[in-house]
Design a protein that fits this description.
Blueprint (H helix, E strand, L loop, with lengths): L7 H4 L5 H14 L2 H17 L4 H12 L8 H10 L3 E6 L7 H18 L7 E4 L7 H9 L1 H4 L6 H24 L2 E4 L4 H18 L6 E6 L5 H15 L3 E6 L4 H11 L9 H16 L5 E6 L3 H14 L8 E6 L4 H9 L4 E7 L2 H17 L1 H25 L5
Parallel strand pairs: 1-2, 1-8, 2-3, 3-4, 4-5, 5-6, 6-7, 7-8
Length: 404
């Protein structure tokens, strides 16, 4: 197997010299935790004041991690990625809005995204969050109350509210099934995840019998998720359903540990990173061993995990274009993984959020915090960007004419 993540010429061929320098400056800035912490606190406030920072944000962190403010603006990015064999997972990145009217608007927007994706050859999936369709408090109530969990509701208002959530999700998945677009349902915090898991299985029962439409997301930094994956597989196998799964390490570690300590229960988070890595790779191996009734999206920025998955596919004789195996990384990050895998013929996508700058600020702040807390990854991004800048300088110097 010739796959390597060291080829920076392939990794950054889609970026201009100026794009490379801008990315290096941004990642260098994010390597200072104090700067990110200050920016994360001030940016949402400054945006609310109406100060003229819109242009600055759009030219820097927004440009790096987001496809555009509108669905139509993502077309330019999608076209560029397509030229290099990279597909797109579209994500309507609006967060933090509540109210039935807002949820209905979000539902309509998700369906519009699906309609658009169906017109593009390189958009096989969209991504959605149940918290974009349902009140956080409702999900927490459903998660905590055993009788509600079993479907017996004490409160008619909550019952009607949950039925509205189910109807929204069904409408989205119905359009996706018709248009042959996969729906990746994001994972949430552990204290609201149970109703999300049940909703995912319910949608799979409706839409995953003949093909894969619905995917649940499993966060392997939780110590119970590998067993949950195996249980989900058994349930789907018994019911003749194809299990759709997106595998990630996880996004809420600090929040999860703080809440567990505050409320006095056992943390759902793995004891250390080694345990997370072990379970993630075991989950990938399990999925690759059951591709007859599992379709998996391996969503990781970890070079070792991606290389191991590729090596396992090679050893098992699994085609790089197997319809049940897909790789993914976030737009603006881990280009050496994405573009080198695409060059080698693997199915790989960039997770591409879009939305008005004001609405995607929470997403952007998470990206900044993630890159400041994962020092090894930020250092890796910086070193490879710097290496490619140096390579291009050297290459350009060789072709310059000799002065007379």
């Amino acid at each position: 197997m010739s796959l390597s993540f060291e080829n920076t010429e392939i990794a950054f061929a889609h970026l201009s010299d100026q794009d490379l320098k801008s990315a290096r400056f941004l990642f260098k800035s994010m390597s200072y935790p104090w700067l990110v912490q200050m920016g994360s606190r001030l940016t949402p406030f400054i945006m609310k004041t109406g100060l003229p920072v819109h242009g600055l944000i759009k030219k820097t962190i927004f440009k790096q991690f987001v496809g555009g403010e509108t669905l139509e603006e993502t077309a330019r990015v999608g076209k560029t990625l397509s030229q290099f064999g990279v597909k797109v997972i579209l994500d309507y990145g609006v967060e933090g809005k509540e109210g039935e009217a807002a949820f209905d608007i979000a539902t309509e927007e998700f369906m519009r995204v699906i309609e658009y994706a169906a017109t593009q050859e390189n958009i096989p999936f969209i991504s959605i969050k149940v918290t974009g369709l349902a009140r956080f408090g409702l999900l927490q109530t459903l998660n905590e109350a055993p009788r509600l969990r079993s479907g017996i509701h004490d409160n008619e208002v909550e019952k009607d509210e949950w039925e509205a959530v189910r109807a929204r999700m069904y409408s989205i998945c119905e359009v996706a099934a018709e248009k042959n677009i996969g729906v990746l349902i994001d994972a949430e915090e552990s204290w609201i995840q149970d109703p999300v898991d049940r909703l995912c299985i319910e949608m799979m029962q409706a839409f995953n019998k003949e093909k894969v439409v619905v995917y649940n997301t499993i966060q392997l930094y939780r110590h119970d998720r590998l067993s949950f994956l195996k249980m989900s597989h058994e349930i789907c196998k018994q019911q003749g359903i194809i299990l759709g799964i997106k595998l990630v390490r996880g996004a809420y570690m600090e929040k999860e540990r703080e809440r567990a300590a505050a409320y006095g229960y056992e943390s759902p988070i793995q004891p250390d990173k080694a345990a997370t890595d072990r379970d993630f790779d075991a989950a990938v191996d399990f999925c690759l061993a059951h591709l007859e009734n599992i379709s998996v999206v391996i969503a990781s920025h970890n070079e070792k995990s991606n290389m191991l998955a590729a090596a396992t596919m090679d050893a098992k004789g699994i085609s790089k274009q197997h319809p049940h195996v897909h790789f993914s990384q976030l737009y603006g990050m881990s280009d050496p993984i994405t573009f080198n895998m695409a060059k080698e013929g693997f199915q790989v996508s960039k997770y591409l959020p879009f939305g008005p700058i004001r609405d995607v600020i929470p997403y952007l702040m998470r990206r900044a915090q993630e890159n400041s807390s994962v020092s090894g990854q930020t250092g890796r991004e910086l070193s490879l960007l710097t290496r490619e800048i140096a390579r291009r300088k050297k290459s350009n110097a060789r072709v310059l004419p000799t002065p007379a």
